[in-house]
Every structure is written in C-alpha cells, then in structure tokens.
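Deliverable D4.2, example record:
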Amino acid sequence: MPKNNKWQDIYYILRDRIHQGELRPWQEFPTNFELMKEFEAHAATVQNAVNALIGDGLVFSAGNTTQRRRVRPLPSRSHRRGDFIAEHGGNSKEVLIKCKILDHMEDIPEAIQGQITLPALFHHTLQLRDDIIVAVSRSYIPDTVPLEPLKELLEQPNADIYETMKSHGLNPSDCEETLICSIASPSEMEELQMPEKSRIPIVRITRKVFDPDGKLLLVCLMVDRADCFEFQYRFPLC
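Output generated by the structure prediction step:
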C-alpha cells in the first residue's frame, strides 16, 4: 500500500484526538506554529492537515480573522425513520421554507414528473437537531385530497406531515426509499450550511409513501448529512 503523506498522518492523529475527546468541543484548536513544533513539519504540511479537518466539519475556520480556531461539536447520530419531529422530540425543530400549490409540471423535478398529478402541494422544510441543519426535505403531494386545507395545516409550526395527511382521510402506511451517497454539491452545502469546501458526505433520498392499496400519496426528495444519521434496513434474502 502507498505510504501516507505527512499531512495525512497529522490529520489522522488530530482527527483521533477530536473523536476520542482529547480535543473537546469549543476548545481552542492548536495554532499552526504549535502543530509545526509538535510534528516537526512545514507550515504548508500543517495547513493541509488543518484544511482537511475543517472540510470534515471537525474544526471551525477562523477565516481572515485573528481569532483562534476552535473544535467543532460533533453532531449526534440517530436512526432515520418516519416523521422528523416525532423521532427527535425537544432537541429538534423543522423550519418551513415554502408551502405552495403547484399547477405547472415544469415546477416538478423532472425525475418524478411521471409520478405526480397536478395540482400538487409542495412542502419544503429544513430539519434541525441541536441547532444544526441535518436535512432538507422537499415533498410533493398529488391531488388525492383537497390541497388548500392540507396546505393551511402544514403551514403550522412543526406540523407532522403524516398525521396531517391522516386527518384528511389518507392512510400513509408503506414507504419505499432510494438512497444515493455522495459529496454535497455547492448548492447543497449552502442549504445545509456545511463548512466551506466540506468533505462531509450527504445522502440523497427519494421517499415514496403509499396507502394500503398501493396508491401513491407523497414523493419526498431529501438531502441528509450522512454524519448525522444511521440508516438501518431489514429485507428477505431470497
């Protein structure tokens, strides 16, 4: 196997110190000069290691200020299942970005245009846990029920989308998901407020929700920070 560059060795040592709690959240991170002395390394070598830690979301960048860099708190992980607020309770919140009835097919993402009938309700939220944006959700609900009353309820703070659908006579019972793990695009980094030049992976999820008769009730396009969730599956081996 090829040998690591020295900056990678420094990066792994510092990363382990953060994960093991030797460098604690919000603690001042060592200066480049301190790291150069400790590891007997050049400034550029140390900076490469620090940039990688910043990209991983482990260290706050000081930017062009004179402030010291600090260790970023590690986000907690949770299982990804159904409704976000119901799963995470008091340390979570869902921020509504847009709730709108769509009448034109060009407003529907091309990948799901063949599955959504118009008009459709568009429900766009940011999901936060411990004040960190961990997911972005864009749901499209076809006109299986009157959409205007549904829209009014979903505009309420922390509305539960599945319970709201049930209150209108729908019965969301089954879920199908497709997942793609990737590095975030610039627009995804911006929306998730991830560190600049972040290397934190994200998971793009297409969730389809059906009633017991197999009728499509909702298509949700989500982008989740992969370092904030665990994905657990069970399926038959046949």
